[in-house]
Amino acid sequence: MNDNVVQWRFTGFYGHPNWRDRNLSWDGIRNLHNKGDHPWVVLGDFNEILLSSEKEGGNARPNTMMRDFRNCLGECGLEDMGCIRDPFTLRRGDIRERLDRAVCNVKWANKFPRSAVINEEHVHSDHRPLILDTKYFDGNIFNQPRSRMKQFEARWLKEETVEEIVHTAWGKGKIQGIGPSLAERTRAMNVDLHIWDRDILIGPKKRINKLKKELEKLRRGPINAESQARQKEILVTIENLLEQEEIYWLHRGRANWLLHGDQNTSFFHNVATTRKKRNQIKKLLDDNGV
């Protein structure tokens, strides 16, 4: 084994849903702790809170249950990693709790000092999805987006108004006296399509984030027929935008051969991201060897 390689352990965790058997969950963590002293992080739904301030609404959590959870983490040398954004990870009716979290030992915290846990927005589930980003606070300048040549986006074909935009842009080029060349007309139409994308569509990811914020606001507000109808409408729109994003990454990943195969957005994202990293200039060497 390479001496420079440091092993670390990740545990996905789900606490026992029955509070009478919650001690079995803590015994499970203790057993894992005794199996080694590697850098260790545990992430998941613990079905328990650490402090009374991590729950709003409903009956108060018995202090003995929170204390047992805290004692277990203390015995295993695990600390709560905190979170970015809203701390309440479960919303059910008028009850909000922080049941999902990540905890780690000192060795893992020292190995990944720039890490963070991001609590994402609710969509279908009553639990928030959690993202563990080991480089959240890096601020690497090479991670900044680079300008690229503007090209046709396949996701535009999912928009109902795309044909109207194309016809209008093509006709406008004729009125403005743009030459009959197909290339000239196409370039002019491409400019209009990107203006439409920027000003109207603003990209699926931005639209999804905007809709998620509106959905979050509605879910925190009063429960009535109008609110529930709007929530259903938003969920349908988000589904359509997620499909557009999948097309976007399929296009970026040059994976057209899988068009009729497994529709896996994460696969296309990884293909595109890997290619970007491979093509990226990370270091330059000057004449002095620096």
From TrEMBL:
Top-level division of the source organism's lineage: Eukaryota
InterPro entries per the UniProt record, alphabetical: Endo/exonu/phosph_ase_sf
Gene3D superfamilies named among the record's database cross-references: Endonuclease/exonuclease/phosphatase
Protein name, per record: Endonuclease/exonuclease/phosphatase domain-containing protein
